[in-house]
């Protein structure tokens, strides 16, 4: 092959993944490689944040010159950066470490991405930031209900409050992501296989349960998109209902409970949890999602034709068979 022919081939794009060894990060790295994208693994620095508001977090980020320079070296030459790091502790307490991982780190990565000339930074947030709202969407309105969801909402607020830079920055709200290797999924399979498997009413409410496979494909679509992006996008619904999720995970039809009973049980549970410092909020939220689910409004994915193939029920069946 002559030199002119070989030079006509553009090099493979480089995408940096911060937190590439975690549940989502490792799955994402495999998906990127299957698309011919070179993955650069970036270890997330351990950070602590004292501030509880966006202005304070940005001030703390501005003081981390050495950490920013280190990240700059890791991100230089990358076309896209994905933050798959953070602390996924739905039942955890509010700590400087939690705010550091879920709010301060995104700000630091965004600053370093600007310095390094990165085209797009995708911060993986969580739909938990919208809490108990009747539906999930891509608006800026959030209703966090726990230490974890407050830290993720703070991360979104910090990125929204940053001054515009050369890098396109967006928060991608992942929903209830399931995968055969995830403990949350294993717990769901165990519950769905017992008489505790139950739904409120008819069980036809939309479930935000999603597959790690579809999330990874969606992230690839977002990273490859060359047009402008909204500051917040939502992982699209995979078409599951609360009943279909439990049946796929447990191989049996769930029990149908009266709606009034479910609402009363949750209200009582949250009151007790509040007295215990929100200690039970994470567990109660999982029960609430199992019974009632949460509707999702169509967003950027649907408007642009970037909805990945639904795989959540297939993933849940695979997790059940693996058990």
Question: How would you characterize this protein structure?
Answer:
The protein is α/β, with parallel strands linked by helices. The protein is built from 13 helices and twelve strands. It has helices at residues 3-7, 23-34, 54-62, 65-75, 96-116, 147-161, 183-192, 212-224, 242-250, 259-275, 281-292, 300-304, 312-322, and strands spanning 14-18, 38-42, 80-83, 120-126, 135-136, 168-174, 176-178, 198-200, 209-211, 232-234, 255-257, 295-296. Strand 3 (80-83), helix 5 (96-116) and strand 4 (120-126) form a beta-alpha-beta unit. The longest helix has 21 residues, at 96-116. The termini are far apart.
Label this structure with key terms.
six-stranded parallel β-sheet, 13 helices, 12 strands, 323 residues, alpha/beta
Order of helices and strands: HEHEHHEHEEHEEHEEHEHEHHEHH
Distance between the termini: 51 Å
Sheet of most strands: 6 strands, parallel
Name the poorly predicted regions: 1-7
Compact description:
The protein is an alpha/beta fold.
Write the layout of secondary structure elements.
Blueprint: H1 3-7, E1 14-18, H2 23-34, E2 38-42, H3 54-62, H4 65-75, E3 80-83, H5 96-116, E4 120-126, E5 135-136, H6 147-161, E6 168-174, E7 176-178, H7 183-192, E8 198-200, E9 209-211, H8 212-224, E10 232-234, H9 242-250, E11 255-257, H10 259-275, H11 281-292, E12 295-296, H12 300-304, H13 312-322
Parallel strand pairs: 1-2, 1-3, 3-4, 4-6, 5-12, 6-10, 7-9, 8-11
Helix pairs in contact: 2-8, 3-5, 3-6, 4-5, 5-6, 7-9, 9-13, 10-11
């Amino acid at each position: 092959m002559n030199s002119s022919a070989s030079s006509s081939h553009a090099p493979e794009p480089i995408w940096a993944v911060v937190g590439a060894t975690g549940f989502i990060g490792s799955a994402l790295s495999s998906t990127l490689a299957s698309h011919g994208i070179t993955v650069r693994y970036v270890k997330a620095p351990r950070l602590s944040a004292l501030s509880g508001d966006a202005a304070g977090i940005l001030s703390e980020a501005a003081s981390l010159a050495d950490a920013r320079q280190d990240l700059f070296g890791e991100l230089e030459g990358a076309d896209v950066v994905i933050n798959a790091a953070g602390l996924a502790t739905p039942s955890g307490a509010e700590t400087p470490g939690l705010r550091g991982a879920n709010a301060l780190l995104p700000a630091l990565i965004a600053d370093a991405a600007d310095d390094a000339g990165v085209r797009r930074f995708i911060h993986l947030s969580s739909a938990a930031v919208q809490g108990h709202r009747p539906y999930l969407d891509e608006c800026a309105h959030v209703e966090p209900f726990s230490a974890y969801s407050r830290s993720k909402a703070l991360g979104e607020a910090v990125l929204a409050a940053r001054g515009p830079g050369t890098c396109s920055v967006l928060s991608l709200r992942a929903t209830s992501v399931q995968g055969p290797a995830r403990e949350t999924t294993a717990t769901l399979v165990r519950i769905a296989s017992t008489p505790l498997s139950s739904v409120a009413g008819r069980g036809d409410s939309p479930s935000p349960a999603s597959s790690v496979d579809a999330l990874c494909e969606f992230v690839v679509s977002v990273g490859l998109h060359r047009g402008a992006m909204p500051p917040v996008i939502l992982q699209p619904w995979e078409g599951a209902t609360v009943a279909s999720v439990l049946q796929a995970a447990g191989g049996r039809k769930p029990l149908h409970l009266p709606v009034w009973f479910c609402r009363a049980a949750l209200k009582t549970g949250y009151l007790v949890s509040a007295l215990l410092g929100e200690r039970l909020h994470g567990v109660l939220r999982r029960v609430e999602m199992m019974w009632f689910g949460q509707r999702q409004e169509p967003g950027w994915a649907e408007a642009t034709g970037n909805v990945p193939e639904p795989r959540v029920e297939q993933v849940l069946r695979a997790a059940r068979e693996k058990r």
